[in-house]
Design goal:
two-stranded antiparallel ribbon; 217 residues
Length: 217
């Protein structure tokens, strides 16, 4: 019964689509909304979506309609789960200490430099790894993996820049997913692009409000 539910499909314009890809992305969007609102439940909700999407992006292993292995996208789901555990613990701890799950701020010069170095080196290293494994679109896949890692870690630490990193991930991710045939995920990336701009504005406003309160005190 469970296997039947996981393998359930529907068709859009003749293209078979797994329901678990749609549901997994739905959990991802709900997690993003929780992240924008800075609530702790964003992390466990995201983990559920990550687990579902992990099976989707290993199409050759789990026999999805696309039958393509996007190792970067699949590995990204495992990375999300690991970083989400870190984010959940950090936000719960901060919530008990300050009353807020996270207080948005700009990254320091040191943090920004580290992010740039990781972005470049991570993309190069993972492109070679994913290419060796036979991943489809290794360079795009490598940047999506690296950028997603940086963005998720930035969210856990309350860095407002993480929204901007997501935009850069979406710009590369949409074409890759369309070419690979993962249409629900590509559509969600487009939705994310608009949502990310909104989320950035929300965090930026909260950040400025907190800064103004500190200056006033």
């Amino acid at each position: 019964m469970l296997i039947d539910l996981l393998d359930a499909e529907f068709s859009v314009l003749g293209h078979p689509i797994l329901w678990r890809e749609v549901v997994g992305n739905g959990f991802g969007l709900l997690s993003a909304i929780g992240g924008m609102r800075r609530v702790v439940w964003a992390w466990p909700v995201g983990i559920i979506g990550n687990a579902l999407l992990f099976t989707v992006f290993l199409g050759g292993v789990f026999h999805t309609p696309q039958a393509l292995d996007l190792y970067g996208q699949a590995g990204r789901q495992l990375m999300f789960i690991a970083v989400s555990v870190y984010g959940l613990v950090r936000w719960m701890r901060d919530s008990k200490r300050t009353g807020a799950a996270v207080l948005p701020r700009w990254g320091t010069a040191r943090e920004r430099t580290a992010m740039i170095v990781v972005a470049v080196l991570g993309t190069v290293v993972f492109a070679q790894l994913f290419g060796y494994l036979g991943s489809f679109g290794k360079w795009a896949d490598a940047w999506i993996f690296t950028g997603s890692m940086l963005a998720t870690f930035g969210m856990a630490r309350g860095l407002t820049e993480f929204w901007l990193i997501w935009i850069a991930v979406d710009i590369v991710g949409v074409p890759l997913l369309i070419v690979a045939g993962f249409y629900p995920s590509a559509v969600l990336y487009l939705v994310y692009a608009a949502f990310v701009a909104w989320g950035f504005a929300v965090w930026f406003r909260v950040q400025n409000k907190n800064f103004g309160q500190k200056m006033a005190s």
